[in-house]
Amino acid sequence: MPIPEFQGTFDGNGRTVSGVVINNLSADGNLGFFGFIGNSGVVRNLSVDINIIGVNLAGAIAAVNRGTIEEVRASGVVAAPSVGGLVAENRGTIRNSFSLVETRVQVDLPEFPIVTSLPSNPVEGQGVRLLVRGIHIDLIYVAPGTFMFGFCAQNSTAGTSQTISQGFWIGRFPVTQAQYQVVMTGHPSLSATPSNFSGRPNNPVEMVNFNDITSADGFLARVGARLPTAHEWEFAARGGNRRQGNNGGVDFIWAGSNTANDVAWYDQHRPTLSTQPVGGLAANELGIYDMSGNVWEWTSTPFSSGRVLRGGSWMSFVRSARVAAHPYDNWMARNNQYGFRVVFPAI
Fold first, then answer.
1. What parts of the chain have a pLDDT lower than 50?
2. Are residues 339 and 283 in the same domain?
3. pTM of the full structure
4. Which domain covers residue 257, as residue numbers?
5. Which residue in 130, 154, 181, 247 is a FRET match for 190, CA 20 to 30 A apart?
């Protein structure tokens, strides 16, 4: 469907519009505050602070400008395959305008089929894009199997045999700020934008504790998901039945590689002192991203007075990002290194 063009004149009279969020992950779209400015469109005297995440062209003011933009200021974050600070594609005139927008080029990832319910009889590595509660969640199916829990070739840890008896669907990525905000807007007591690094829609949400996400009206209940167990998480991180150790080799030390920098954001491998956009490094054998580094991920497994966390974070030593590492923290702890990933049961 063609996007309507903005025609006519919009004069902001020097006003500032802030707090705008546009999240269009489930369908094609050219995104911006005005979308598409047509040949006779004029936008002037306006400041916009905006966060956009999309799947096509995106700019803070418009995806495409064929008209005139003048005396305009833009700030915020724009993430899409083709991005621009003010506009992604300019075919018109821009005068006396500037952008402080942080632009993020989305990784070009294979598209999954869009579904509203999970398919029956899936095969390992199958991916779907589940539409639920106004967002999409990319999921990958992990089939039942047996592996050595805690095994690590790097430090000669033997591990113990564990069997995953039921297949499950796990998030291709950690839950992002954009996803969390859409689902949690309107919650009576929990912030929809809890992240310390807020305003980065494609970064993992953080500053959420175990209780926040597992409460009766938390994110998981709202989308019909749960957290993985520590065993499920590790089996998926190792690559399920596609892992090297199930194919005549030795399991990777990190999720998808024996070279940490291929797959993990950690303290000595990160472009900024913060989380990073999901999907920015290589996937593991199942096509799952960010299971080493970026954010520690809550699991449902209790330990002492807390819950087990997996995967390491942007602040962790590289050894903490190994698939075998499994520390824990108090279930009420909030931290700018703590996020989560969803699991849905197989039908």
1. 1-2, 26-27
2. yes
3. 0.73
4. 114-345
5. 130
